[in-house]
Amino acid sequence: MSSKKPLENSSLTFFTPDETESLGIPISNNTVSAGFPSPAEDFKEKRISLDNTLIKNKEATFYARVSGKSMIGAGLDDGDLLVIDRSLEAENGKIAVCFLDGEFTVKRLQIEKDAIILLPENEKYKPIKVSKESDLLIWGIVTYVIKEV
């Protein structure tokens, strides 16, 4: 990650991918058991590039850090890093970064015949029905969330 793209009136902090040569990270060919590991499994590894895995369209991909708790039910917690693809089409049910009336927000899209509703994933927040007077830009679709555990 590199160049921070500051945006005024934003609860998200945006970044663009670095121009780095990926060396890859070792990955096991086997799955990782969440139960009892099999001692018979040999550890075999190959390399994986997180850039190649997470970024499908480099020119249209951005990162943004989440601020707030309106999407915790979708697994997007305060401080998480989102991978956003601006080349993807907005679809009903997708999680999107939207620019609404001068501010960025991340919500689940509910696209109806005559309305768009931005749905939070936390019962403490209310859905936002986008009115005809609202200025809405569906800025990009969230494809991955990167979090610290």
UniProtKB/TrEMBL annotation:
SUPFAM superfamilies: LexA/Signal peptidase
Keyword set, alphabetical order: Autocatalytic cleavage, DNA damage, DNA repair, Hydrolase, Nucleotidyltransferase, SOS response, Transferase
Keyword Translocase: no
Domain annotation Peptidase S24/S26A/S26B/S26C: ranges: 28-142
Domain of life: Bacteria
Pfam families: Peptidase_S24
Any one GO molecular function term: hydrolase activity
Keyword Nucleotidyltransferase: yes
CDD domains (alphabetical): S24_LexA-like (cd06529)
Enzyme class: transferase
Entry's family note: Belongs to the peptidase S24 family.
UniProt cross-references to PANTHER family, sorted A to Z: LEXA REPRESSOR, LEXA REPRESSOR-RELATED
Record-given protein name: Translesion error-prone DNA polymerase V autoproteolytic subunit
Species whose genome carries this gene: Flagellimonas hymeniacidonis
Organism lineage: Bacteria, Pseudomonadati, Bacteroidota, Flavobacteriia, Flavobacteriales
Gene that encodes it: umuD
